[in-house]
């Protein structure tokens, strides 16, 4: 997850992924959930993909999924043993990120989703910060917040949505539910309407620097849309 901040606003998060599925595909396979634990940054001669397996706290993009794996634990602590077996399987698959699915505390069985995720270099991170600032401002300028929401309430609201863009920087998929709701349904719906209108009209978002998209061009973007300077998305 890459984060960059706009003045007075929470960060915009961006995750790079391999080419996205065709527009109109089943949302269950194209929807993406950005990890809450950032992956280690690649450096120097390290490959953008091949580092050790890192445990993430939520499912990642379906386009980065290598396999769903299942194991059974043994010994004194079957749950811990099962976890280690999952990690070992993920390494053999060439995965560098692993989401372990929740199970009952006394269960000896476990399952996980193994991913291969591209990591950003420090150069790309710097470029993303500047682009994220521009993207957040661009979206807010085109947003019509319902007038039925008072200015006092609006200033405190923030909703976080996630969407995918193609190489032309056109939105091709908007996640149905917000990553984080503002608590105000009208505010959330207006934000989603903004993203869906941008997608329907095939309007290109501000283009990121080439250093960001040189790995494929498709991006999964998680962006907070804020109603004012008092909004908090943490």
- Quote the distance from N terminus to C terminus: 15 Å
User: Topology as H/E string?
Assistant: EEHEEHEEHHEEHHE
Structural class: alpha+beta
- How much of the sequence lies in strands comes to 15-25%
Radius of gyration: 19 Å
Backbone shape: globular
- State the strand order across the main sheet: 1-2-9-7-8
The largest pleated sheet is described as: 5 strands, antiparallel
Query: How many runs of DSSP E, i.e. beta strands?
Result: 9
Quick structural summary:
It is built from 6 helices and 9 strands; from the N terminus they run ββαββαββααββααβ.
Protein described:
The chain has six helices and nine strands. The chain has 234 residues and is α+β, with helices and mostly antiparallel strands. The protein starts with a strand and ends in an 8-residue tail after the last strand.
Please give a handful of descriptors for the protein shown:
234 residues, alpha+beta, 6 helices, globular, 22% strand, 5-stranded antiparallel sheet, 4-stranded mixed sheet
SSE inventory with pairings:
Elements: E1 2-5, E2 11-16, H1 27-30, E3 54-56, E4 65-72, H2 78-93, E5 97-100, E6 109-115, H3 122-141, H4 151-154, E7 158-165, E8 171-174, H5 185-200, H6 210-213, E9 219-226
Parallel strand pairs: 3-5
Antiparallel strand pairs: 1-2, 2-9, 4-6, 5-6, 7-8, 7-9
């Amino acid at each position: 997850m890459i984060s960059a901040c706009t003045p007075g606003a929470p960060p915009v998060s961006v995750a790079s992924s391999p080419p996205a599925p065709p527009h109109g595909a089943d949302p269950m396979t194209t929807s993406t959930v950005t990890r809450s634990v950032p992956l280690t940054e690649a450096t120097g001669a390290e490959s953008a993909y091949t580092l050790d397996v890192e445990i993430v706290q939520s499912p990642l993009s379906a386009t980065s999924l290598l396999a769903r794996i299942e194991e059974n634990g043994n010994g004194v602590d079957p749950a811990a043993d099962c976890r280690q077996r999952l990690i070992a399987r993920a390494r053999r698959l060439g995965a560098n990120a692993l989401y372990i699915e929740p199970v009952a505390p006394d269960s000896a069985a476990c399952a996980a989703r193994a991913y291969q995720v591209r990591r950003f270099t420090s150069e790309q991170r710097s470029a993303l910060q500047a682009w994220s600032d521009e993207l957040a401002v661009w979206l807010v300028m085109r947003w019509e917040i319902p007038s039925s929401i008072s200015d006092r309430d609006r200033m405190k609201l923030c909703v976080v949505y996630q969407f995918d863009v193609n190489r032309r920087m056109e939105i091709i998929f908007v996640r149905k539910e917000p990553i984080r709701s503002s608590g105000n349904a009208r505010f959330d719906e207006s934000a989603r309407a903004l993203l869906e209108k941008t997608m329907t009209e095939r309007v290109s978002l501000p283009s990121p620097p080439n250093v960001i998209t040189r790995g494929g061009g498709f991006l999964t973007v998680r962006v907070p849309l804020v109603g004012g300077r008092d909004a908090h998305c943490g």
